[in-house]
Amino acid sequence: MGEIRLNYYSETCPNAEEIVKEQVINLYNKHGNTAVSWIRTLFHDCMVKSCDASLLLESINGIQSEKTSTRNIGMRNFKYINTIKDALEKACPMTVSCADIVALSARDGVVLLGGQRIEMKTGRKDSKESHLAEIDASLPNHNDSMMYVLSRFQSVGIDVEGTVALLGAHSVGRVHCLNIVDRLYPTVDPTIDPTYAEYLKGRCPHPDPDPTAVEYARNDRDTPMILDNMYYKNIMDNKGLLTVDQELISNPITSPYVEKMAADNDYFHQQFSKALLTLSENNPLSDKGEVRTDCRYVNAD
């Protein structure tokens, strides 16, 4: 286990967290959707073995990038992590890890989307290898059974309540049509509200969407850039986008938490913050890791 703690960079790079925050705000003002990307990046990195920035590695020198996995289709804005990294390298060369950038940018992104500020530890190191082969067994898929999804989250220390809260991240952003069409074609899933199904078919008019095309639908059309409990209200009205969203309300283990979060936005935020913090601390690297100078590549020996 890596030694992570609050204010890890207080002596080596005192302004590190402020630099990340400043860059995250700048990027948000230029490209609003980056704030959503930072939350997704944390999830897709930390669920697979460790919060170690392995997701950011490109395919080169025997490394096969995790970005090539079908589970990571639609992931965006990786290039802007380099923008944050460049600012940190200018201030404090070879000091702040890419893994910490992933964690801190998610923390600051949550605030921009209306969530609570999370006191997050730092001191993670970066992986020297990709975990592509482990993704399918680690990252729950959009159409997995709820029991399997719960077991995957439990493996990283997140309970049922926390899992329901983390899926509330679907309150913001959008989903590629590839992950929706199985509920629309050849026949519409009867659990989808008919008017919502019409909206989805308008957004995703083909049963075989192009994975490279920007074809998507929003889970929450009312407040698509605010992290809030509209997600839970929607799935209670059969307006869940993914199979996993609908299963949250149909499964008797998770449905009581859905109802509670739909009724109480503050409770949702508390549980979301708690679960995201737990996820951010999954299996941090220490002696086996490094601080990459470029988040896309391991350091040259």
Report the major sheet.
2 strands, antiparallel
Task: Output the CATH topology of the largest domain.
Answer: Peroxidase, domain 2
Shape: globular
Which CATH architecture of the largest domain would you pick?
Answer: Orthogonal Bundle
Strand order of the largest sheet: 1-2
Q: What class do helices, strands and sheet pairing give?
A: mainly alpha
What is the element string, with H for helices and E for strands? HHHHHHHEHEHHHH
Number of helices: 12
Helix content: 40-55%
CATH superfamily of the largest domain: Peroxidase, domain 2
Domain Plant heme peroxidase family profile: 3-299
Binding site for Ca(2+) 1: 45, 48, 52, 54, 66
Disulfide bonds: 13-92, 46-51, 98-295, 177-204
Family: Belongs to the peroxidase family. Classical plant (class III) peroxidase subfamily.
